[in-house]
Amino acid sequence: MFQTFDDLSDPSCGAPHAALLRAELDRRGLDGFLIPRADAHQGEYVPPHDCRLQWLTGFTGSAGLAAVLGKEAAIFVDGRYTIQVRDQVDMEVFPARHLINEPVTDWLADRLKPGQKLGIDAMLHTVREVRRLREVCEEAGAELVALQDNPVDSIWEDRPEPPVGQVTLYPVELAGRAAGDKIAEIQSGLKGKKADACVLTQPDSIAWLFNIRGSDVNHTPLPLSFATVPSEGRPSLYIDGRKLSNSVRDALSDLTGLEEPSEFTAGLAALGKAGAKVMIDPALAGIGIAEAITGAGGSLIEAQDPVLLPKAIKNATELKGARAAHLRDAAAFVNFLCWFDVEAPKGELDEIGAAEKLEEFRRATGALKDISFDTISGAGSNGAICHYRVSRSSNLKIPVGKPFLIDSGAQYEDGTTDITRTLAVGEVSAEMKKHFTLVLKGHIAISTARFPEGTTGAQLDTLARIDLWKAGLDFDHGTGHGVGAYLSVHEGPQRIAKTGSQPLKPGMILSNEPGYYPAGEYGIRLENLEIVTEARDVPGGERPMLGFETITLVPMDLRLVEVSLLTAAERDWLNRYHARVREEIGPLVGAKERIWLERATEAV
Question: Model pTM?
Answer without folding.
Answer: 0.95
